[in-house]
Amino acid sequence: MGVGLDRVVLWGRNLTQYEQMFNLTDSDLGKNIVGVADGPACTNAELFEQGIRYTSIDPIYKESVDDIRASFLGSRPDVMARISALVEAKTVGLQKSVEELGRDGDQVFDTFIADYEKRKDSGAYVYGELPSLPIADQAYDLALSSYLLFAYSGVLDYSFHLAAVRELLRVAREVRMYPVTDVDNYLSAHIPPMMQTLRDEGIDVYLEDVPFRYVDVKTNNQMLVARHL
Ligand SMILES: C[S@@+](CC[C@H](N)C(=O)[O-])C[C@H]1O[C@@H](n2cnc3c(N)ncnc32)[C@H](O)[C@@H]1O
Questions:
Q1: Residue 186 in contact with residue 154, Cβ under 8 Å?
Q2: 130 lines ligand 1 (CB under 6 A)
Q3: Among 42, 75, 121, 175, which is least packed, fewest CB within 10 Å?
Q4: Any residues with CB less than 8 A from the CB of 100 and at least 6 apart, and which?
Q5: How confident is the model at residue 20 (pLDDT cuts 50, 70, 90)?
Q6: Which of 117, 106, 57, 56 is nearest to 79 (CA)?
Q7: Atom of ligand 1 nearest to the CA of 39
Q8: What confidence score (pLDDT) does residue 1 get?
Q9: What CATH number does domain 15-228 carry, 3.40.50.150, 1.10.3720.10, 3.30.30.10, 3.90.226.10?
Q10: Is the CB of 79 under 6 A from ligand 1?
């Protein structure tokens, strides 16, 4: 699969990056939000510092801190190699050096793991795996999911994606997903049939521009929004 990844990696982003990936406003942050596939993102930790309640769901939350750390360290070389390969293939122009992006990822992980150690039994971090989440119907106003759906379109097939998005719509009134491109930065082949199917099911679904630029690529600047009308 080109310079992409052939397995889902453990790599996290911070609150500012979540705000940019999902066009989150102050009003959004007042909603009841769940982040699905949040993994080692430190968004939950940062929101907690601001007194904002937020729930993260991920399969890794059934693992020990040591095992999560080992998985993160195992993912790190693959992430760095992928970014370097994209730069070499000249498909992207980075806003930061590969080394700086690596250090950012380490910092996010350290913030996440410190909070996770403190609050893992508080209900802030919940074990769960798409396409079947341990959440009641419409328990949340907004579900966010980044760098799982569509990013791994070569690994996760269309039926998984459709079941996952339907599940997110079961638990939340509105769902925002980023990116809509696959790991090689092409629009995911799952996007057009997904949008048509959801529309046929009466869901309001559209692509929306976002300011987030992890790597500076033209195709990487939209999120997919799906909402119950
Ligand atoms: C690249 S990380 C993204 C983390 C975070 N969303 C972010 O953008 O910073 C991908 C995450 O997807 C999680 N994941 C893998 N399979 C999953 C599934 N079936 N359901 C939910 N999460 C899954 C992984 O454990 C990992 O934490």
A1: no
A2: yes
A3: 121
A4: none
A5: very high
A6: 106
A7: 27
A8: 31
A9: 3.40.50.150
A10: no
- Tell me the CA–centroid distance for residue 193 and ligand 1, in Å: 23
**Residue extents of the structural domains in the chain:** 15-228
CA of 127 to the centre of ligand 1 (A): 11
Give the C-alpha separation, 169 to 54, whole Å: 18
**Segment 113-135, tens digit of pLDDT:** 999 999 999 999 999 999 999 99
Closest atom of ligand 1 to CA, residue 144: 6
Confidence grade of residue 52 (pLDDT, cut at 50, 70, 90): very high
Please give the structure tokens belonging to residue 72.
């993160």
User: For all residues of the chain together, what is the average pLDDT?
Assistant: 91
The mean pLDDT of 96-100, rounded to a whole number, is 81
